[in-house]
Amino acid sequence: MIEVAELKEVYWLQVCGKFHTRKLSEGMLYKVCFIVRLKDSATGWEDPIILELKLPGGKTQQWKEILTMKPRERWIEILVGEFIATEKYVGEMDISLNGTDGTDWKQGLIIKGVEIKPDIQYYWKA
């Protein structure tokens, strides 16, 4: 059984997590994504959500994504950021999804989790 978080109805959405980069292979390019599904009945996603990846050492990546046009009723990846695992980025990284703009109530988003996956076609040697 897979446990997921389902958004019933909120005005303000903030999902945050941390992950230590020492668990990653040095020299690999990693992509960080939220795995989500929008229900057919999902509403309130006309305003962009903000996805943010803060790496150890202070580098921050930020994306805006509008979910309205995303496919419904299937799992999709929403990119948060990507980076090459090096000793420059050893420590905890912060991962977040924020839906705090707009005036509409939000509902119908299911969050399965965050995926940190290597791009096996890319390998960098220091």
UniProtKB/TrEMBL annotation:
InterPro entries, sorted: PP2-like, PP2-like/Lectin
GO molecular function terms noted in the UniProt entry: carbohydrate binding
Protein name, UniProt field: Phloem protein 2
Organism from which the protein derives: Clitoria ternatea (Butterfly pea)
